[in-house]
Design brief:
Strand order of the largest sheet: 1-2
Strand content: under 5%
Distance between the termini: 38 Å
Order of helices and strands: EEHHHH
Largest sheet: 2 strands, antiparallel
CATH architecture: Orthogonal Bundle
Length: 126
């Protein structure tokens, strides 16, 4: 089983949907080839960022263009929502590790792909 960030569901690796969505696995290793690594980066920068925003509860947020566009939520709001979800779902506080894994992945994606302020189209949004 793996968690798919394209449709925000769990899939079995042997099912038809699981085979076609395996490139969207949040724990996939893209080290098999350079082409696959580049494709994974592209998917993360487009579908991955949108999925991460949904996982953290930012519904209706649209970043356009995907990498350096307008619409990024403020950093402190992302961290606040992450901490609230982590308090409820972290395994050390009695939460389910399977429920916590997508939350941890989402905040890592948003931290990684958020453009620096000097490159953003809306630098005054924070």
């Amino acid at each position: 089983m793996f968690y798919c960030y394209a449709c925000l569901r769990r899939h079995g690796k042997v099912s038809a949907i699981g085979r076609s969505h395996s490139r969207f696995d949040i724990e996939a290793d893209a080290s098999t080839s350079a082409v696959q690594a580049h494709l994974r980066e592209f998917y993360l920068q487009t579908k991955g960022v949108a999925a991460a925003l949904k996982i953290l509860g930012f519904h209706g947020v649209r970043i356009h263009p995907p990498r350096f566009g307008r619409g990024w939520p403020p950093r402190d709001e992302v961290e606040r929502r992450y901490r609230a979800l982590a308090k409820r779902n972290h395994p050390d506080t009695g939460g389910d590790p399977e429920a916590f894994r997508p939350i941890q992945w989402a905040v890592e994606v948003l931290r990684r792909y958020r453009p620096p302020d000097e490159y953003r189209a809306d630098p005054d949004a924070d």
